[in-house]
Fold this sequence. Notes:
Layout: H1 2-25, E1 34-48, E2 51-58, E3 67-70, E4 74-81, E5 89-92, E6 118-124, E7 130-136, E8 146-152, E9 166-176, H2 181-191, E10 200-203, E11 220-223, E12 228-235, E13 242-246, E14 251-256, E15 259-266, E16 269-271, E17 276-282, E18 289-296, E19 310-316, H3 336-345, E20 360-371, H4 378-381, E21 389-394, E22 397-399, H5 406-412, E23 447-449, E24 452-455, E25 459-467, E26 476-480, E27 485-492, E28 509-510, E29 512-515, E30 519-527, E31 531-537, H6 540-545, E32 548-553
Parallel strand pairs: 1-4, 3-8, 9-12, 11-19, 20-25, 22-23, 24-32
Antiparallel strand pairs: 1-2, 4-6, 5-7, 7-8, 9-10, 12-17, 13-16, 13-18, 14-15, 14-17, 18-19, 20-21, 25-30, 26-29, 26-31, 27-28, 27-30, 31-32
Amino acid sequence: MSNLITLFMRWLCLLSAIYNAKHIAHGSSMGESTRFYDFKVQTKRDTKLCNSKDIVTINGMFPGPVIYAQEDDRVIVKVTNKTPFNVTIHWHGVRQRLSCWYDGPSLITQCPIQSGQSFTYNFSVVQQKGTFFWHAHVSWLRGTVHGAMIVYPKAGVPYPFKFPYEEHIIILAGEYWLQDLQQIEKATLASGGPPPKPDAYTINGHPGPNYNCSTNDVYQIDVIPGKTYLLRLINAGLNTENFFAIANHNLTIVEADAEYTKPFTTDSVMIGPGQTLSVLISANQPVGKYSMAVAPYESGKIVIYQNVSAIAGFNYIGAPSDSLSLPAKLPKLDDEVAVKTVMDGLRSLNQVNVFKEIDKHLFITIGLNVQNCHSKTPKQNCQGMHNGVLAASMNNISFVNPNISILEAYYKKIKGTYTEDFPDTPPKFYDFVNGAPNTIPYDTQSLNGTRIKVLKYGSRVQLILQDTGIVNTENHPMHFHGHSFYVVGYGKGNFNPITAQFNLVDPPYMNTIGVPTGGWAAIRFVADNPGVWFLHCHIDIHKSWGLGMVFIVNNGQGEQESLPHPPPDLPQC
């Protein structure tokens, strides 16, 4: 009977694959078709871990619906907000060439879509293909409002690796809380302290058998011995970076952040919020059941983590139904070497031409701060270190959201929304990692402001991101909107331009880089996309505390180098 059920499920999968293939192939054989999607932002009752609560979703799905497209396609998504919460949608990793108005970060490129309102996103995936995802980009709604976006190569263009027997999307929604997410965010920011640890981790929305009432709430993939599978890994979590592994199976990375890489084989990966990896898995082990496991990478020494792993199944067809799953072996939860080993293995598929002449040098420190307590109720509002208020900053400036979108203010020349004085360097240089003043009679405070950095169109930029130990060194997944960048170098300790080693031959081309714990990363990009672009830590509590800044890329020459007019249905604040 179980074999009949398996065959029936495989038949359904085959029909689905044929339908998707026809859907993707519809239109021009050269790509450049138009894909239409309808997103309804709505709440649904969700039951997990012996409890039920309302969560915000797209179309009642958690995770949300998958968007499929081909390279160079146009994607049109009408978003209608049927909840009482403000919402926007960000198309993570899509460079939004000449479509900055549709990038999605709230109060950066648009005002939020308010309750009862709609907004239609309209953009093309120009010269891009691979594993992307979309997510809410206002408050902490991203915790449940997210989904995959898969962009295939143009018709007739093969993958540069062995064609897989099947593909599977694996969304690591890093955390699941029993409490309402909006309440957690509001209470955390009001407390001045850190957020509570999550109640569970999930894999494609399923926590797995390690948690209460979750023995049957398990995601699984059924595999055929001898076949090769492509797993598209997406970390859509809020505040936790995660290790991922499959028992007794190696993972061969072939794509990172929707860019092909040289194949690199490892037994585990660390993937931070905002990052995607595509990995090949060979079903080359004895027939049986094998666990897929997700656990936190505990890079922050003062952070409270949930240490119970989420588990999914990687089960061979023909395995006895009563057999036990072999456990996956994960690295130690603070294993920096395991993280560095994978990063060392990421190389662009082909040799690239990284520019050597630099027009703009930037050195930006990133990290946490502690502000002095000014509350009349310090026990309630000053729960950070040394009875202070936790904050985060870049070059010691904590980003403050304006009252209208920066892009609209820039386009309409509205004064008073932001200042163009984000500094090229921190206010002072010292031993950022080991000598930072991390106690409050010393100055651990940051300045507050909506400061931006203006770049001339076509500028070749080198940016050094330096982690600091003012409060706590940790790995920061830094995401850049509107651009990808070459990760030309990274290392431990303070950046030293004399001893730093750069790869200008085949560095990975990414949109989110994990700046190492107590270390630095060097990226290079060309500012060739006019508009307003957010650079921020993809750990949401850090972003809420102010770990972000904004670039404005000025117009170049002519229409193809200039910001278009805003869409007529752009939401108003």
